[in-house]
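Reviewer 2 asked us to include a model.

Predict the structure of this chain.
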Amino acid sequence: GYGVRFAISGVGKVTNVDPDLLLRAQIRFVMVEAQALLAQARNAFSGFRMAEVKGRLDRAAADLIVTDVADQETLLEVLDVGADFASGPVFGPPALA
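Predicted model (structure tokens):
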């Protein structure tokens, strides 16, 4: 590799992620907002199965990053769903290093 990893953000439905397209485009991170992911997980009619989503991402060697995790309750739900990574205000304000 070249030390560069690409991400795609603003994914609305993680169930529509195409692993072959991710591989071809060398996308290694799929970013979805916490509320969008949790809405899919809570909706019994959405066809959402995290194991299937993880399987697709694994085939593409990509990780799921859940963004905009605003509070502890949302963080617990995101962890229960099984996301690889998360980011947002619950982890603290941004600061210069």
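The chain has a mean pLDDT of 88. Residues 6-91 form one domain. We have added this to the supplementary material.
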